[in-house]
TrEMBL record:
This is Proteasome subunit beta. Gene3D superfamilies: Glutamine Phosphoribosylpyrophosphate, subunit 1, domain 1 (3.60.20.10). Belongs to the peptidase T1B family. SUPFAM superfamilies: N-terminal nucleophile aminohydrolases (Ntn hydrolases). Non-catalytic component of the proteasome, a multicatalytic proteinase complex which is characterized by its ability to cleave peptides with Arg, Phe, Tyr, Leu, and Glu adjacent to the leaving group at neutral or slightly basic pH. The proteasome has an ATP-dependent proteolytic activity. The keyword Lipid biosynthesis does not apply. InterPro entries: Ntn_hydrolases_N (IPR029055), Proteasome_beta_3 (IPR033811), Proteasome_bsu_CS (IPR016050), Proteasome_sua/b (IPR001353), Proteasome_suB-type (IPR023333). The keyword Nucleus applies. It is found in: Cytoplasm; Nucleus. Its main location: cytoplasm. One of its GO terms (cellular component) is cytosol. GO terms for biological process: proteasome-mediated ubiquitin-dependent protein catabolic process. Component of the 20S core complex of the 26S proteasome. The 26S proteasome is composed of a core protease (CP), known as the 20S proteasome, capped at one or both ends by the 19S regulatory particle (RP/PA700). The 20S proteasome core is composed of 28 subunits that are arranged in four stacked rings, resulting in a barrel-shaped structure. The two end rings are each formed by seven alpha subunits, and the two central rings are each formed by seven beta subunits. The catalytic chamber with the active sites is on the inside of the barrel. Component of the proteasome complex.
Length: 204
């Protein structure tokens, strides 16, 4: 068993027309034993940048705290929020720093950049970035998410259609992966608002 599969997770970020959605499952488990059903995998860095962390839960929490610390230092020094591209570079550099004893995490970064252009990216545990123009996935359910997103994704979706698409992709994927599930947590972010919704899925 890979250490990345110890806690199980499902994460997906998808772009729409001047908006993006980021979604995750809510199960925290130790292999097949469920510990919690309301685990928060997605964190808001600021109103236009969100971070999802899949992989080992303890490492994800440590990494998140270090990233928040670095972002607050940036805000103090620069007197502005980080752009999503800059934040992705920060995450990548922080992971690469620890490459000989890495955080067992696979981050997903989603944000709105200049002119409200959506930006999504994921990386491996040592910070090698993978940029995409449609969707990115991470976690133990990623191979199922790839198939679901590939068949459902359309370009330039409006926020409501994007929410529906990402939700259906997430729920159908976690049903096929026994290490993730227990509903979902979805954020849809537009230039003017952030909508957060909880999905109810199969509770087994």
């Amino acid at each position: 068993m890979s250490i990345f599969e110890y806690n199980g997770s499902a994460l997906v970020a998808m772009v729409g027309k001047n908006c993006f959605a980021i979604a995750s499952d809510r199960r925290l488990g130790v292999q097949l034993q469920t510990i919690a059903t309301d685990f928060q995998r997605i964190s808001k860095i600021h109103d236009r940048v969100f971070l999802g962390l899949s992989g080992l839960a303890t490492d994800a929490q440590t990494l998140y705290q270090r990233l928040v610390f670095r972002h607050k230092l940036y805000q103090l020094r620069e007197e502005r929020d980080m752009k999503p591209e800059t934040f992705a570079n920060l995450v990548s550099a922080l992971l690469y720093e620890k490459r000989f004893g890495p955080y067992f995490c696979q981050p997903v970064i989603a944000g709105l950049g200049d002119e409200d252009k959506p930006f999504i990216c994921t990386m491996d545990s040592i910070g090698a970035k993978e940029l995409a123009k449609d969707f990115v996935v991470a976690g133990t359910a990623s191979e199922f998410l790839y198939g679901a997103c590939e068949s459902m994704f359309k370009e330039d979706m409006e926020p409501e259609e994007l929410f529906e698409t990402v939700s259906q992709a997430l729920l159908s994927s976690v049903d096929r992966d026994c290490l993730s599930g227990w509903g979902g947590h979805v954020y849809v972010v537009t230039p003017t608002e952030v909508k957060e919704r909880i999905l109810k899925g199969r509770m087994d």
